[in-house]
Structure formats: structure tokens, C-alpha cells
Specification:
Number of strands: 21
Strand order of the largest sheet: 6-7-13-11-12
Strand content: 25-35%
CATH class of the largest domain: Alpha Beta
CATH architecture of the largest domain: 2-Layer Sandwich
CATH topology of the largest domain: Uridine Diphospho-n-acetylenolpyruvylglucosamine Reductase, domain 3
Number of domains: 3
Radius of gyration: 20 Å
Number of helices: 10
Shape: globular
Bound molecules: flavin-adenine dinucleotide
Structural class: alpha+beta
Largest sheet: 5 strands, antiparallel
Length: 325
């Protein structure tokens, strides 16, 4: 669904020359997102090396082109009209281990990192077993499960800052909180990240990882396309240190029965929205906005999207604004 692709911008020939063999044109983002939704990216650059990734960011920023760094696409909703700039797909997957610290390029999947830690008898990342997406996405959103989160084991990161300079960042700089880091608020990108783990018993680590993966297989919609939790959990009004699951509120308004087109709520978890086949971003936005309004009416609380909206939602932008964070 391209709105107007007739006028080609002046930078395109230079882009095509510089990124020859690395880019795809009008690439459907539905192929690159776990929820299988999203119109075309004008260009998608497959960045298999950190140099290519930095080059693509520099090219975009020097030419005033909108760009977006894509990890595993497991926490985003791309609009039906796609993304009119350059999507840079992070495919950088090298890692090194130094004693009890693993440093990984941020295109590596978090689940692969979990396996590497296990094989090296390093404990601390077991909570992350089975979480979708890349190391970069996990750092950006402080991914977590089973009582653990990335910030618990995060050591340092190498970032590309907003002036496109490569800098080192410690934990303080990333300002981690629940499903959040400073990278969500600025345009800095994580090129690599290191995690401080502790030596442990290989079998025990392996058993914990298997248990977590098994629980996920039972509870998560692995047979359907989704982007994980749609809304953020909320602070408990009676205890600021605790969260109330957004799914609890959604259950009180009967969310699990709801469906708009092929967009629906997962039968086992009211805060996971699934694409049953041909759902559009517009369907998802309508589903979310409708449920948010019902929760607001009943409990006077504001649900806000955890899934990150990306690109052009056309005439549904206004409705989207009512649910984004
Ligand atoms: C079935 C299912 C279950 C899930 N369960 C959980 C769960 O238990 N816990 C949990 O926390 N999440 C969960 N998620 C959500 C998702 O797995 C995480 O949010 C994941 O960390 C997203 O990583 P990604 O690489 O896919 O990020 P993407 O979706 O590609 O991107 C998300 C955001 O991160 C940014 N980003 C990506 N890489 C970088 C980088 N290198 N530097 C800076 N910014 C970057 C992107 O630009 C974007 O803004 C689940 C998702 C699914 C589909």
C-alpha cells in the first residue's frame, strides 16, 4: 500500500550505488515482523557488519532521510502504508567471551546469547530463554521475564550516539527501568552490549533454560503471529514498587472475546494481540483503542502501548495517538 511513490528523491541513485547488493526496495515489513503486519519500507538495508550499519545511519542522517534500526521485529507494529525512509536490519551477530563477561553485537538473537552463556557455564541470562528478538532490542526495551531483566546483567554497551560517534555507555547512562531504557527516548543505537554473568553449574543452568522455554511454549501464542504484550503493565496505585498487569484490566472488560478483522486477543492471555491471518495495522489499532476506551471507562486508568508503532498509519494515525506512550 504505497501512497505516493511517483517522485523519486535525489538521494536514491547515490544510495543504490553505495549499498549495492545490501538493499531491498519496497520491501514488505510484514516479512520482518513477528506479527506479520506492515506495509513496504522504501528501502531495507541488510547490515551484516557494524561498518555497514554505521554507514547506512550516516547516509540517512546526512541526507535528511528518516531511518529505523530493526532488530528481530518482535516488538513493533508497522503502519499499513509502510516506512518511507530506510530500514536498517541489524544482522551483526559476532560475540566474544572474556572470563565471565560476554560481549555481543546487537543483531545476535537474545536466545542465541542465552545458549552461549549456557555452553560456557555462565549463569544470569536464564530468565531470557525464549524471549524473541535481538540483543539490541532487548537492551532498548530492557526485556525481561520470570523476575529477571536485561538490566540485572547488563555491563556496558558501545553506542552510536546522536552525532554518529561511537561511544561507550555504562548502566547509569542507559537509565533502565521497567521495559525501558534511554535508547527508547533518544536516537542512540547500541552496536554491541556486554553482560556480566557468574560461573555456575552447566546442568543447572541448562535445566532452568529448558524450564523457561517449556513454560513459554505452553503460555505464548507460538502458533499465531504476535508482538508480545500489546500494552504496558501499570504501576499499582497502592504500591508504587509493584505493577498491575494490563492483562488483568483487559480481562475485566472481556478482551479475550474481541476481534476486528483478523486482529484478535489471544485466548490464553488478554494482553497479547494476535494476527489470525490477514490482519492490518489499522485492525490492531482499532482493537487496541476500543479496549483501552473500555478500560478507561470502567477503571479510569490509561493503558499505553508497549509495542512500538513505526511508520505511516495514514488515516488511522489519530486513533493510534490515543494509545501510544
Ligand atoms: C510471543 C512473544 C513473546 C514475548 N515475550 C516477551 C517477554 O517475555 N518479555 C519481554 O520483555 N518482551 C517480550 N516480547 C517482546 C520482544 O520479544 C522484546 O521486546 C524484544 O526485546 C524485542 O527485540 P527485537 O530485536 O525484536 O526489537 P524490534 O522489535 O526489532 O525493535 C524494538 C525497538 O528496539 C529498537 N532497537 C532494536 N535494536 C536496537 C539497537 N541495537 N539499538 C537501539 N535500539 C534498538 C528498535 O529501533 C525499536 O524501537 C515478546 C514478543 C513475542 C512475539
Amino acid at each position: 500500500m504505497l501512497k505516493d511513490n511517483a517522485a523519486k528523491p535525489a538521494w536514491e541513485p547515490a544510495f543504490k550505488k553505495r549499498f549495492e547488493g545490501l538493499y531491498l526496495e519496497n520491501e514488505p515489513m510484514s516479512k520482518h515482523t513477528s506479527i506479520r503486519i506492515g506495509g513496504p519500507a522504501r528501502f531495507l538495508v541488510n547490515a551484516a557488519s557494524v561498518d555497514d550499519l554505521i554507514d547506512a545511519v550516516k547516509f540517512a542522517s546526512q541526507n535528511g532521510i528518516d531511518y529505523f534500526l530493526l532488530g528481530g521485529g518482535s516488538n513493533i507494529l508497522v503502519g499499513d502504508y509502510g516506512f518511507h525512509g530506510i530500514v536498517i536490519k541489524n544482522m551483526c551477530v559476532n560475540y566474544i567471551i572474556d572470563d565471565n563477561i560476554i560481549s555481543a553485537e546487537t543483531g545476535m538473537t537474545l536466545d542465541d546469547l542465552v545458549d552461549v552463556s549456557h555452553h560456557n557455564s555462565l549463569s544470569g541470562l536464564e530468565f531470557a530463554a525464549g524471549i524473541w528478538g535481538t540483543v539490541g532490542g532487548a537492551v532498548c526495551g530492557n526485556a525481561g521475564a520470570f523476575g529477571g531483566s536485561v538490566s540485572d546483567v547488563f555491563h556496558k554497551a558501545v553506542l552510536l550516539d546522536e552525532d554518529n560517534k561511537v561511544v561507550t555507555a555504562d548502566k547509569e547512562k542507559l537509565k533502565f527501568r521497567y521495559r525501558h531504557s534511554a535508547l527508547k527516548d533518544n536516537r542512540e543505537l547500541a552496536l554491541s552490549a556486554s553482560f556480566k554473568l557468574v560461573k555456575g553449574d552447566k546442568d543447572e543452568i541448562g535445566a532452568k533454560i529448558s524450564r523457561h522455554r517449556e513454560i513459554r511454549r505452553e503460555k505464548h501464542p507460538l502458533d499465531y503471529y504476535s508482538a508480545g504484550s500489546f500494552f504496558k503493565n501499570l504501576k499499582n496505585p497502592r504500591d508504587a514498587g509493584m505493577n498491575v498487569a494490563a492483562g488483568w484490566y483487559l480481562d475485566q472488560v472481556g478482551a479475550r472475546e474481541r476481534r476486528i478483522g483478523d486482529a484478535g486477543v489471544f485466548e490464553k492471555h488478554a494482553n497479547i494481540f494476535v494476527n489470525y491471518g490477514e490482519a492490518t495495522a489499522a485492525d490492531m489499532v482499532k482493537l487496541g483503542a476500543g479496549l483501552k476506551a473500555e478500560v478507561k471507562e470502567k477503571f479510569s486508568v490509561d493503558l499505553r502501548m508497549e509495542v512500538r508503532p513505526v511508520g505511516d498509519f495514514g488515516e488511522h494515525r489519530e486513533l493510534l495517538e490515543t494509545i501510544i506512550d
